[in-house]
Design brief:
Pfam families: Glyco_trans_1_4, Glyco_transf_4. This protein is an alpha/beta fold and 376 residues long. It has 13 helices and 13 strands. It has a seven-stranded parallel beta sheet. A six-stranded parallel beta sheet has the order 10-9-8-11-12-13, with helices on both faces. Helix 1 crosses helix 13, helix 6 packs across helix 11 and helix 9 crosses helix 12.
């Protein structure tokens, strides 16, 4: 399942710079999976003794007085990233974000870091980190601004490694990065423990995530209604127009929007549901909310897009034959009957500890190679 690197338990702690996606602060409740992932990676690497500096948007959470982690803000908290329809505004926004990332990289070069984790969606780290050992983590399908940079570099920069979150997503990137590694996302399974049997509410479904068209919230509502289920929705409204036009008019006593919830509240919503609906209408690179549901023992019904089949496997839920209401409704009916113990066993294959160990081993490899290069 995971890429294996030689473990070096005797190595000294590393000084690690982490470049975050700059659209949102890195703090709970998280704007999305990338923000949650970044926070967990920084916290876990600090817990393993490394010194970590997170370059992020202002307002990102600090890691406590006794932590080995710190935050360096490179973009004001009040700067709003928007989906502008016109090219002029988009270009201006790119210039602002690119400038912020460039300033982060200048600070990295001045900061005597051993290694860098690029956890952003910016093309700038692919252009400006030459000579610095870097692990690039690719969380999305290929982005034009990044592939445009990669296309100009037939050979990757010395000391750079690339990893993505699923084999499905890797296939899309390999035209530019043939030796792309796969390190699946992982979660803290202890924090998503299953609910008691007497707390599971028959006839209920849950859906969590960013409320945007590509996440298919409207499809989840339609498929739940087709099965007569009560549906609870939770997550940030990242496309207000979509929410107002398609989601809000569908809310009633059967379909409720619970808001943007913290983890404890999310766990209660998911663990008490009879089934979890995952409805991506794009090539979902991984699906953290799907994994969180499985870690609660809640079987998943999913559309057949992206990494859904790879993540759910044969026991975590049911992947629909088609990405439409009828297909998803059928998957829901099948998923309800799955054994929750089997779902939990599937989730156990995606631990956060294993993910962090894989990152750490890759970082030690990069640092060792750089040290050897200096000796030569």
């Amino acid at each position: 399942m995971y890429e294996r690197f030689e473990t070096r338990p005797s190595m000294d702690p590393l000084r690690i710079a982490v470049l975050a996606h700059l659209h949102h602060p890195i703090r709970p409740p998280f704007a999305g999976g990338m923000e949650a992932h970044t926070s967990h990676v920084v916290a876990d690497l600090c817990a393993r003794g490394h010194e970590v500096t997170l370059f992020a948007k202002a307002g990102s959470a600090h890691f406590g007085r006794n932590s080995r982690g710190r935050v360096q803000a490179v973009l004001p908290a009040d700067y709003q990233v928007r989906g502008y329809p016109d090219e002029d505004h988009r270009d201006e926004q790119h210039r602002r974000l690119d400038g912020a990332m460039s300033s982060a990289i200048s600070a990295v070069r001045a900061g005597a870091f051993d290694v860098v984790i690029n956890n952003s969606l910016s093309p700038i780290p692919h252009e400006q980190l030459d000579g610095i050992p870097t692990l690039h983590l690719l969380h999305t399908p290929p982005l034009p601004r990044i592939t445009a940079v990669l296309a100009t570099r037939p050979e990757r920069p010395h000391g750079h490694r690339y990893a993505t979150v699923s084999h499905s997503n890797a296939r899309a990137w390999r035209a530019w990065i043939p030796d792309l590694a796969v390190i699946p996302n992982g979660i803290d399974l202890r924090r998503w423990e299953p609910g008691r049997k007497d707390r599971i509410v028959p006839g209920t479904a849950a859906w969590t995530g960013r409320i945007t068209p590509e996440k298919g919230t409207h499809l989840a509502i339609a498929a739940a209604r087709a099965n007569g289920l009560r549906l609870r929705l939770a997550g940030p409204i990242q496309d207000p127009e979509y929410y107002e036009s398609l989601i809000r008019p569908s809310l009633d006593d059967k379909v409720r929007y619970m808001g943007h919830l913290g983890q404890d509240q999310l766990r209660e919503v998911i663990a008490s549901a009879q089934v979890f609906i995952s409805s991506p209408l794009w090539e979902e690179p991984f699906g953290l909310t799907t994994l969180e549901a499985m870690a609660c023992g809640t079987p998943v019904a999913a559309t057949p897009n992206g990494a859904m089949a790879e993540l759910i496997g044969a026991s975590g839920g049911v992947v629909a034959c088609t990405a439409d209401e009828a297909g998803l409704a059928n998957a829901i009916r099948e998923a309800v009957g799955l054994r929750r113990t089997d779902v939990l066993q599937r989730a156990a294959q995606f631990s956060r500890d294993q993910m962090i160990r894989s990152y750490e081993e890759a970082l030690y490899d990069l640092h060792a190679a750089q040290s050897l290069g200096r000796v030569q």
